[in-house]
């Protein structure tokens, strides 16, 4: 199991996981992640984006959501971030 550092998105590496996890394409799929700004939710959102999915992330903290959305966009996601 990979330990996440202070920047979980930067530390996540699907290449390192391919030996243990079957990586499927999620092109044209959508995923909703509740609590996607940290921990398991963040890792799930990052993995989904890397696999080609359109991720919608829910968060109670607008600043964290904006930061995660910006990092995911740099990884290839092209979606808007929202907070409610």
Task: Explain how this protein is built.
By secondary structure, the protein is an alpha+beta fold. The protein has a domain at 25-74. It is 39% helix and 12% strand. It has helices spanning 8-11, 14-17, 39-50, 62-74; strands at 30-34, 54-58. The protein is globular and about 30 Å long. The model is unreliable at 1-6 and 80-84 (pLDDT under 50).
Mean pLDDT: 75
Task: Give the strand order of the largest sheet, numbering strands 1, 2, ... along the chain.
Answer: 1-2
Helix/strand class: alpha+beta
Q: How many strands in all?
A: 2
Indicate the low-confidence ranges by residue numbers.
1-6, 80-84
**Shape category:** globular
Q: How would you briefly describe this protein structure?
A:
This protein has four helices and two strands, in the order ααβαβα.
Topology:
Blueprint: H1 8-11, H2 14-17, E1 30-34, H3 39-50, E2 54-58, H4 62-74
Parallel strand pairs: 1-2
Key terms:
two-stranded parallel sheet; disordered N terminus; disordered C terminus; 39% helix; 2 strands; globular; 84 residues; alpha+beta
């Amino acid at each position: 199991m990979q330990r996440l550092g202070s920047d979980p998105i930067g530390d996540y590496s699907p290449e390192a996981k391919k030996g243990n996890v079957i990586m499927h394409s999620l092109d044209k799929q959508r995923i909703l992640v509740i609590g996607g700004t940290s921990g398991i939710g963040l890792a799930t959102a990052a993995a989904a984006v890397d696999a080609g999915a359109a991720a919608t992330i829910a968060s109670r903290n607008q600043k964290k959501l904006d930061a995660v959305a910006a990092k995911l966009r740099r990884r290839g996601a092209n979606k808007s971030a929202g907070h409610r």
